[in-house]
Amino acid sequence: MSHSTAGRVGRMSPAIAAAVGAVSLLAACGGTTQPAGGGSSTAGSSSGSAASAAGGKTIVFSPLALKIPAMKGLSEGVKAYGEGKGFTVDIQDPNLDPQKQIQQLTAVIESGKASGVWMIAVQPTALKSVVQLAIDKKVPMVVNGVPADYGFDGLQPGITFDTIDYTAQGKAIGEQLAKCINEKLSGKAKVLFVDATTGTAGKKEIEEGAMAALTAGAPGAEVVTHVEVTDRAATQTKIGNALQGNPDVTAVQGMNDEGALAALGAFAAAGKELPCVTEAGGNDEVLKAVQDGKIYASVALQFQDDMAQSFDTLVGLIADPTQTGQQLTVPQKIYTKDS
Length: 339
Prior knowledge:
By secondary structure, the chain is an alpha/beta fold.
């Protein structure tokens, strides 16, 4: 899943969090899906056949697994959004099994019952055959990731890819921290840099993007120590320990919701002010802290907007499946006290 996914997943409704390789998604509205834990696909059912016969307006949505609450919620959101656009949305449940996802999608693509497919691939490298089949059968798809994840050299006819731009996310939090340091600290600060957890998707890109933007925007800022974010309590302890050796820290690149909130807690426990902290996440607690002036800026991925752009892009491809697809990115928004 994506960087600080847990914090973002719980707060959206209805939403998308496109995931894998890192990405994910959220709570929902209306519609019926396969019960969580169920294994069979609803695509290809009588409702799907009827929809196809009525005019080919059946979209098949294949998330990671319906036993994941966020995925079940996303499925319901996609179903409700699609029905509002006049489409029947059939939900599959590969249950985190790439082979099952291949079998289910191959069946609906070969049968001609799917007008279009939206897939969050369990294992993109294993799903290339499904994407190629869709190209051959002229069944458009929206899939998570980038072409290289599926073994393609570039964009393909009828296939749109959707991913998170972690470099842009990192750049935004670095720029905002530099802006805070220039506004509140006359351009000079000792900075504590919270690193993403090892193995987190986008770790390298977001960290390098943040560091480069901070250095460019506030040359007088100096990163004096790093801590790796884990859960909030453990991260607060790590930051508290780091402050003992670096008592002059006045700015924190908080990385995500857990890191930023842990920094606030650690500074408060130490009786210190924290003029500048930025992060990427944006759960409800963080956004309240932004409004209260405790966090300078939060960069939040707009998953509901991404759900809409993904679905609408798929509808456009259905009209002409021979057109080359696009590379979409999940939109992001910068929240500050004044915006």
